[in-house]
Amino acid sequence: MTERVLAGVPASPGTAFGGVRRLDSSGESDGIVLEESARPIEAARALDALSRSARELEGLAAKLRADGRTEEADILDAGTMMAEDPVLIEAVEGAVLNRGLTAVSAIRVEVEAVAAQLDMLGDAELAARAADVRSLARRASRLASGDSAPAQRQTDSDVILVAPDLGPADVIELDGNVRGIALAVGGVTGHAAIVARGLGLPMVVGLGSDVLSLADGELCIVDADRSMVIVSPDRDRLEAVRAAIAAARDARARAMASRALPTVTRDGRAVRVLANAATPTEVRVALEAGADGVGLLRTELAFLEAKHWPTVAEHRRILEPALTQLRGLTATVRLLDFGGDKTPPFLKGVFGRGVELLLEEPDALSWQLEAILETGDETELRVLIPMVTEPGQVRAVRAAIEPIAARRGIRVPLVAAMVEVPAAAVMADRIAPEVGMFSIGTNDLTSFQLGIDRTRPGGSPAHHPAVLRLIAATVDAARVAVIPVEVCGEAASNPLVMPLLVGLGVDELSVGAAAVARVRAWVRALDFEDAAAIARRALDAESAVEVESLGRPLRSLLDDAG
Ligand code: PEP
Ligand code: MG
């Protein structure tokens, strides 16, 4: 077999290899038409399968809740409600009684009809719900066919799960042999992707129908870091991947073993390592890996389907599971960063982004602040403002916080500004006196400064001197105002950029949950003075390529550390 490469979209980082295991979610009938006399018993079997699915999902949700994984449990509750939906039950029953479909076919066809309706709405978030619905079809049709074990078969060898799409319940129930996931469709914001990231399972989505033609057992590599799946890899490639996976596993084990050690460079400079999170699962994984807290809680991702500005209660429901884990620890909660590619239906057609939108809706801002101050009461709370461009925006947010804090009888939490548009970096000396911290969002900052799409394959070069100069200006302004600087963009966990950030004087790095242990090990491997000398030279470089060669010695230090 010759090697083939399928290009996709990374949904959960890492590399894995194994034999293909196909998980079918066919919405087609098996073609059997039952005799009239056989239909009532078959209909009862179909309804029983739906009801047992609801019970299975309930059981899974209860286990997750007991583990503190409330968000994933909530997702499964939606599956339970679907299994108990009277409209679906009536449709399935009718398909058996009136059209003579078998229980399995009736479930597949009718549930697929619901999923297809969601697909047709052309909305990424609703398409993610369609995956949850199809997952229910798989579970119920398995039960209807008399197979009570989960669809995954136990084998001893490593497995790459291949499917058109997956629901979160499928991911949660994966057996211990599944090493990676490759999906024909699937979304990065889908629930399965959230769960896979929490579990640290590499996952590539959007691979197209080609991936569905892979045979069971065919060897393939899921390389989420390079957005691809390699089918029937040649021997050299496989050996290289095996070695890389083994090295990554060893490094992870070493990093986890040292999670109690302080994050101090070899020459004694302390750099805090915190986590970026949008879900309670990520908070849990990050804390287990030794994170000092959360440096960026993205609050808008939970509301991308919202029909209106979230109410106090809705905010509270999302914040509580994350913030209760952060008692006594840093909890940096970012205000809603709606706009751009994070525009919910109720804001369609509205321009503006982040704080600009919030200040146009003072009630919406107050509702979120109310919930943050209430649920973050026992944390080291920091309220982070997205897309700041001028000092007046910070003053306006603080003015909204003060009466709420006064009413609650608590002190005003630290207010921080994101530096993620060049305007904020240029104005950093004017903004710094208004805030208690800067958080540099290199994802947007790089994109706006260099005029490139932040989602382009391979990422965007935060090590370009034009971006590094903005970061340096921000750090300089922070030093004068005596406030800390955090970096919360992806650059903070990039082995080329991270040493330059430390060298430029950044105090805190906030990184994805799965990267916390690694970045902590990196800090300990670095020498601050060496990093500072190279960072200074990088500011004078002409191009990102030149910075790459300047930074190579530091990068190899990190490669050895983890
Ligand atoms: C950033 O822009 O770097 C950032 C952290 O914000 P987000 O990725 O959520 O836009
Ligand atoms: Mg941003």
Give the key terms:
Glucose Oxidase, domain 1, globular, 562 residues, alpha/beta, TIM Barrel, Enzyme I, Chain A, domain 2, 21 helices, eight-stranded mixed sheet, binds phosphoenolpyruvate, binds magnesium ion, 3 domains
Question: Can you characterise this structure?
Answer:
This protein has 562 residues and is an alpha/beta fold. The chain folds into 3 domains: 4-24 and 151-236, Phosphohistidine domain (Glucose Oxidase, domain 1), CATH 3.50.30.10; 36-144, Enzyme I, Chain A, domain 2 (Orthogonal Bundle); 252-561, Phosphoenolpyruvate-binding domains (TIM Barrel). Helix content is 48%, strand content 14%. The protein contains 21 helices and 16 strands. The strands form 2 sheets. Strands 1-8-7-3-4-5-6-2 form an 8-stranded mixed β-sheet. Strands 9-10-11-12-13-14-15-16 form an 8-stranded parallel β-barrel, surrounded by 5 helices. The longest helix has 28 residues, at 39-66. The two termini are 34 Å apart. Mean pLDDT is 88; it is low at 151-155. The site of phosphoenolpyruvate has 10 residues, from helix 16.
Secondary-structure blueprint:
Elements: E1 4-7, E2 9-12, E3 15-22, H1 39-66, H2 70-83, H3 86-99, H4 103-120, H5 124-144, E4 159-163, H6 168-172, E5 178-183, H7 191-199, E6 203-205, E7 219-223, E8 228-231, H8 235-257, E9 272-277, H9 280-288, E10 293-297, H10 312-323, E11 330-334, H11 355-360, H12 362-375, E12 380-385, H13 391-408, E13 414-419, H14 422-426, H15 428-431, E14 437-440, H16 442-450, H17 465-481, E15 485-487, H18 498-503, E16 508-512, H19 516-525, H20 528-539, H21 544-561
Parallel strand pairs: 3-4, 4-5, 5-6, 9-10, 9-16, 10-11, 11-12, 12-13, 13-14, 14-15, 15-16
Antiparallel strand pairs: 1-8, 2-6, 3-7, 7-8
Bound molecules: phosphoenolpyruvate (PEP) and magnesium ion.
Phosphoenolpyruvate binds next to α16.
